[in-house]
Amino acid sequence: MIKYGELSTKKANINLFLNQLKKNVLFALKDLDVGIKFDKGRMFITLNQDNFDEVSDKLKNVFGIHEYDVAYKLKEKDFEAIAKVILDLVKDKEFKTFKVLTKRSDKKYPISSMEFSRKIGGVLLKNIDDIKVDVHNPELLVNIEIRIDGVYIYFNSERGIGGYPVGVLGKGLLMLSGGIDSPVAGYLAIKRGVKLEALYFESPPHTSLEAKNKVLELARKLAIYNNDIKVHIINFTEIQQAILQNCPHEYLITIMRRMMYRISEIVARNNRCKVIVNGESIGQVASQTLTSMNVINEVVKIPVIRPVACFDKLEIIDLAKQIDTYETSILPYEDCCTIFVPDHPVINPEFDKAREYEKLIPYEEMIYKAIKNHEVIRVTVNEEKEEFADLL
Q1: Which of 58, 121, 321, 389 has its CA 20 to 30 A from that of 331?
Q2: Lowest mean pLDDT among 1-10, 120-129, 230-239, 364-373
Q3: CA angle 154, 160, 161 (to 5 degrees)
Q4: How far is it, in rounded angstroms, from Cα 235 to Cα 56?
Q5: What does pTM read for this prediction?
Q6: CA distance 149 to 77
Q7: Distance (Å, rounded) from C-alpha 84 to C-alpha 367?
């Protein structure tokens, strides 16, 4: 039994969210023999074999699920029959305190929710020794839902990861580097229902194959939540060398980021992505001051989403550890954003100077070439970690 949480606040368009959630659950459980049905209150997964743990492991990574429970369904609504089943279910459980919580969506049922809970509690106290009711912190919570199609009984619940079903709000393009921040930003965007593709800038021979495979491993970790992820790999060497040779060094990062944004917008539009997503955090580095962001953002018209913009570094690290990207991100393989960092990058760049300096290179021609020749790799959920680990 799946509970929706935030999705339940949706009104006329709730079916849009629930249909996408059903698709995502089916994708997560595609190797298992299950049936799914849903209404505006609950989604039910019927298992055709005893594989509850396997299903639970897969559901814990599906966004849109607030809570899920292993529930036992009774079509018969007779009180005595329900009480007998509950006694059978709890007889092997170890507990000293309990609480019964009843929800009655079938309003025609003759016993109220509070009265039903009281009566079931009385049955348990009468038939099981040395137990008592604790309404605040029970060791065992007995949940009963009396619905139109039957009665559902379940015990302590599992928390889902919440958010919106992936894909319900369209696609975004994640600027994915090998650092700590961008995978966390990607995770947070996915959580809000954005299906991601990723864009990685490599600069061979200055960046290594290990750096590229590090990014693909980060993409694989995001694919766990995203179902799969298409990674666009742009060779940035020619553009980066032209900037290095022709532009003042204090403006290298500013011009480089403006070029990356231009490329990202074109790739995003070509792949029907509605937004660019990146891991910029206000003030963390020179290119992420408000002035720098403003100057860099000037070159694109597509919205740029920065999910970790107001997080501090320790908060980002904590979340990276939670989603298992941190240890990969700190592997010592540099990407093109870190290799050519000048000693004193400008933190308050000027619009006019950025426009003037980038005119010193034929960037439109180089951007066209980089996009035309770029590589695409699809990373799927089923790819084993070892495929990339061997290359790192």
Answers
A1: 58
A2: 1-10
A3: 170
A4: 41
A5: 0.91
A6: 9
A7: 71
Residue 123 pLDDT more than 50? yes
151: left (phi over 0), alpha (psi -120 to 50) or beta: beta
- Exposure class string for 321-341: b at 16+ Cβ within 10 A, else e: eebebbebbeeebbbbbeebe
Query: What's the token pair of residue 65?
Result: 């699920």
- With CA atoms as reference, report the closest residue to 305 among 179, 173, 161: 173
Q: Return the H-helix or E-strand segment holding 162.
A: strand 158-162
Tell me the average pLDDT across 357-366.
96
> Treating both helix axes as pointing N-terminal to C-terminal, what angle do 252-270 and 363-372 enclose, rounded to 10 degrees?
50
Q: State the chain's mean pLDDT as an integer.
A: 92
Indicate the helix (H) or strand (E) that contains 44: strand 43-47
Strand, helix or coil for residue 195: strand
What pLDDT digit, counting tens, does each position of 139-194 carry? 999 999 999 999 999 997 899 999 999 999 999 999 999 999 999 999 999 999 99
Whether the per-residue pLDDT at 385 is higher than 60: the answer is no
Which pLDDT belongs to residue 286?
80
DSSP state of 134: -
Could you tell me the domains of the chain?
2-69 (3.30.2130.30), 73-156 (3.30.2130.30), 171-389 (3.40.50.620)
Burial class (CB in 10 A: 0-12, 13-18, 19+), 78: exposed
pLDDT digits (tens, 9 = 90+) for 185-231: 999 999 999 999 999 999 998 888 999 999 999 999 999 999 999 99
Torsion sign, CA atoms 375, 381, 387, 391: positive
**Is-contact 233 197, C-beta < 8 A?**
no
Q: Is 144 helix (H, G, I), strand (E, B) or coil?
A: strand
Name beta bridge partners: 22. Answer: none
Q: Provide the CA 360 distance to its chain's centre, in angstroms.
A: 41
- Of 126, 136, 123, 152, nearest to 97 (Cα)? 136
pLDDT attached to residue 391: 41
Strand pairing of 132-133 and 375-380? unpaired
Catalogue the E-assigned strands of 56-105.
Answer: 65-68, 72-74, 97-104
Q: Which residue has the higher pLDDT, 392 or 297?
A: 297
